Amino acid sequence: MIANHLIPNLRSFSSSFAPRILHIGDVLTSSKQFSDQDVLQFSNLTLDFNPLHFDPHIARQSGFRDPIVHGILVASLFPRTIAFHFAGAVYVSQSLQFKSPVYVGERVVAEVRPVQLRQNKDRYIAKFATKCFKDREVVVIDGEAVALLPNLEIIDGK
Amino acid sequence: MIANHLIPNLRSFSSSFAPRILHIGDVLTSSKQFSDQDVLQFSNLTLDFNPLHFDPHIARQSGFRDPIVHGILVASLFPRTIAFHFAGAVYVSQSLQFKSPVYVGERVVAEVRPVQLRQNKDRYIAKFATKCFKDREVVVIDGEAVALLPNLEIIDGK
Predict the structure, then answer these.
(1) MaoC-like domain location, by residue (chains A, B) (predicted)?
(2) Which residue in the set B51, B72, B88 is minimally distant from A51, CB to CB?
(3) Following DSSP, what letter does each residue of A35-54 receive, concatenated?
(4) Least CB–CB distance from A71: residue in B62, B73, B79
(5) ipTM of the modeled complex
(6) DSSP character at residue B154
(7) How far apart are CA A83 and CA B27, in angstroms?
(8) Among candidates A29, A40, A107, which has minimal Cα distance to A70?
(9) Consecutive H or E run containing B126
(10) Model's pTM, two decimal places?
(11) Contact between residue B4 and residue B30 where contact means Cβ atoms under 8 Å apart
């Protein structure tokens, strides 16, 4: 299950009738608990059968207590969070630093925070700080994304 | 279908009985043709339903001739290529610049080239230049990856 949430800053509430507009300081979030079925499906789709994701012995040899979820699968929370609130958003770049392992069954929360917003012709170039957490405060992935947004109106998707 | 190839530099052939050792100058490659089923499966797995991947009208509004494959799905070729040749490789970081769209049905070739190899205790820290191409020369994704390798012996996986 993936849940999506938007934690807008207070300026977004200046009028309850106006569309909510993305501002620096907002936090877009989503979360997902990764199952062994997710790991298997992702492996079958990408043919990434690194035994680190299946073999407890190899995982322990590599310093992990159990098999871990593919980093790129966890990172997919970032574009998914951006696209959920901005239909048609185009991904320009993403940096990913894999800080901690995600074990099967763990819930990960992705936080996407705009740090720079710039209009470019009829679109907006948005730079986001992107982080994934587990256990509330353990950073799993740290990085930055740049995306082209069709506008700054936040779709709630509810 | 994903195909995997290793284009070793000539030093790797110094003995046909010795294991092939990764060197600066080697190129690890794999390729994949992305189908609409791949896009649908990836969307269902990650819940990234950006209409850019399904809706021709939204895709054209965003400057593409057709719906495009998720960038992170294409990027999964990089860890998959590294893991194919180094079982138990641990992904440390990846940067991704999405340069050109990948349309459904297009074949993408990933090239992973070691640019720095350093021993760290009983493992190796490898920095790779990572690029995806389509139509032989069109760069789709450009970036860099760092991975911890258990050793430098290349598994051919044949």
Answers:
(1) 31-121
(2) B88
(3) PHHHHHHHHHHHT---GGGT
(4) B79
(5) 0.91
(6) P
(7) 34
(8) A40
(9) strand B123-134
(10) 0.91
(11) yes
> Helices in chain A by DSSP H: which ranges?
36-46, 56-61, 71-75, 77-85
Q: Is A76 close to B150, i.e. CB distance below 8 A? A: no
Q: Which chain B residue has its CA at the smallest distance from A48's CA?
A: B80
Interface of B with A (CB under 8 A): 2, 32, 38, 41-42, 45-52, 58, 61-63, 70-73, 75-77, 79-80, 83-84, 87-98, 148, 150
Structure tokens at B32: 């994949």
Interface test with B, best of A93, A122, A132, A149 (most B CBs within 10 A): A93
Residuewise pLDDT in 10s, chain A (158 residues): 455 666 655 444 444 567 899 999 999 999 999 999 999 999 999 999 999 999 999 999 999 999 999 999 999 999 999 999 999 999 999 999 999 999 999 999 999 999 999 999 999 999 999 999 999 999 999 999 999 999 999 987 54
Q: Closest to B89 (Cβ–Cβ): which among A50, A63, A90?
A: A50
The backbone torsions φ and ψ at residue B105, rounded to the nearest 5 degrees and listed phi first, read: 95, -15
